[in-house]
Amino acid sequence: MEVTVDLSGLDEFVEEVEEYANELMKEAAHNAVDTQKERNVSSKKTYQNHTWNLRNAPGAAVVRDGNIVYLYVPADSEHAGAKGKTENLLIYGKLPKNGVVFADGMEYASFVSSKGFDVLDSASLTVEKELKESFGNENVKVTWQE
């Protein structure tokens, strides 16, 4: 007895699922960066802005199979230097195989965060919430790397 299985169309289905996952991650990353720029949703303190560089510098990259498939750094035109620093961190920094990476390219971002201020915490909380809703709680793991 010979059994023949037709798996045509399976590759297309897998590609559709991957593209859907990419779109969910892009949307969550975009919303998380916008939230970080607009308001504090974390329990950390909100810092004072003197130059607005730190507030303009947050950005995100969606990484799939080790490659950036989406880069979002929405700094305004008056803060092009801050935007460039964040883009460099995201493009040339350590990337996971799959995930969403956040960065703030200002050199003092980690110092401000270490003093208990919200630099990227709201973005992290927002993306975690959105991805858990999209993919299910057991499928989302948020980690911090410095």
Short description:
The protein has 146 residues and is an alpha+beta fold. The protein has five helices and three strands.
Molecular structure report:
- Helices cover 46% and strands 13% of the residues.
- By secondary structure, it is of the alpha+beta class.
- It has five helices and three strands.
- It has one domain.
- It has helices at 10-38, 53-56, 80-92, 109-114, 121-135; strands at 58-64, 67-72, 99-104.
- The protein is elongated.
- The mean pLDDT is 89.
Distance between the termini: 59 Å
Number of strands: 3
How many domains, in number, for the residues? Answer: 1
Strand order, largest beta sheet: 2-1-3
- How large is the share of residues in beta strands? 5-15%
Count every helix, treating DSSP H or I runs of 4 or more residues as helices.
5
Strand and helix order: HHEEHEHH
Rg over CA atoms, rounded to whole Å, is: 18 Å
Low-confidence stretches: none
Mean pLDDT: 89
Given helix and strand content, the structural type is alpha+beta
Largest sheet: 3 strands, antiparallel
Q: Helical percent range?
A: 40-55%
Overall 3D form: elongated
